[in-house]
Input
Amino acid sequence: MVMEEARATPDSVVSEFEGTILRNEDPFSYFMLVAFEASGLIRFAALLFLWSVITLLDVFSYKNAALKLMTFVATVGLREPEIQSVARAVLPKFYMDDVSIDTWKVYSSCKKKVVVTRMPRVMVEMFAKEHLKADEVIGSELIVNRFGFVTGLTRESDIDQSVLSRVADLFVDRKPQIGLARPGKTISTTFLSLCEEHIHAPVPENYNHRNKNLELRPLPVIFHDGRLVKRPTPPTSLLILTWIPLGIILAAIRIFLGSVLPFWTTPYVSKILGGQVIVKGKPPQPPAAGNSGVLFVCTHRTLMDPVVLSYVLERSIPAVTYSISRLSEILSPIPTVRLTRVRDVDAAKIKQQLSKGDLVVCPEGTTCREPFLLRFSGLFAELTDRIVPVAMNYRVGFFHATTARGWKGLDPIFFFMNPRPVYEVTFLNQLPVEATCSSGKRPHDVANYVQRILAATLGFECTNFTRRDKYRVLAGNDGTVSYLSFLDQLKKVVSTFEPFLH
Output
């Protein structure tokens, strides 16, 4: 019986990426993401302008020409590491949102997995190997000139024949057992001829999976970067381009009014300008004279977390910070306490501030966009037993208000450029003394407890990931901040004003 089950388990699969693993068969929006995130608004607009030409080429069966045109416009003049950065930090989130779970169940049931794509391999390889556990990724290869710039051309004159030969080279001794692909004349018509069994997408929900130990879902995307919230399909891209000038004006108005008006006016002004702040739970009263302040322990979703908390409490609450830019400190309507990451020095700073009044701290140390909480530092638990957990969350429509690869000084601007930004603030009860270090509990136990109750409130999952893990995935570094001079920061804005001044 065991031997029969082993024989029944599929040994290998070759699967088409577009239209099979992904439900959407049109790669246009992924080239738009590369254009926007690796280059800027001008290239983004140029590619959108050519969409009608690309569509006509597709309709008249010049699919290779359409693909080459998209590839050229999206990549010419870029350096390959810039494309790799987008493929590592931006594209996986959008790919994952489009994965067909029924196809994944068949694909993941096999031992050896090969993914075939018509896009340049560099755009797909990281996602396929990290999240789909592919052994090999076959796609077109971008040509890089001797100066390190991508020419926009690919090495393959005929991608279909190239795919056929490379799949054949991978399976010299035995044919791949399963071929997954779209029906019709696509890149799949070449490699399917090499496979023993053909399965066409969409895969039926009741398909008889022979491997009962298959994985139900791919490895989730916890960290991702980039400014765009929605996948830039042609209609969405046109809407974004139309909105950007209005969004910049709206952001300037919101930031100006937020910095000059008193806190109690915020709920009224927010509604007039399209924003909303939803408050749940009962916030504590300000500390009496002579008493130490309350430490508000918040989940960290954006740079705006402490500012929104101050607006809700209708008083200025200083915030502990580490990696925010000097511009953000200047624009901040609340005081900031910059940490050094030297434990004793930071502990002294926090204690000193608590002796003066309330304080906000985000013990994750960095933001996370997905419904996960990163590991909480236990430092806050050592310094006070007056701890009030606060669950922060937000919703935006067009632009993300966080970045790991770009300049953080633009975070509040992008947040306020959204038409209807929404913030949710949920106050939990102050921790009882028996749940704090005053009762003998260890700091990391207190931190883990606070993380769990905040995750339960938001419906999130707890993780052991840290700031370093995030920056290694998204930016290829450990997240260490170097403080630049004003001139250096100005140069950085001019060169990386994402994506408006490229």
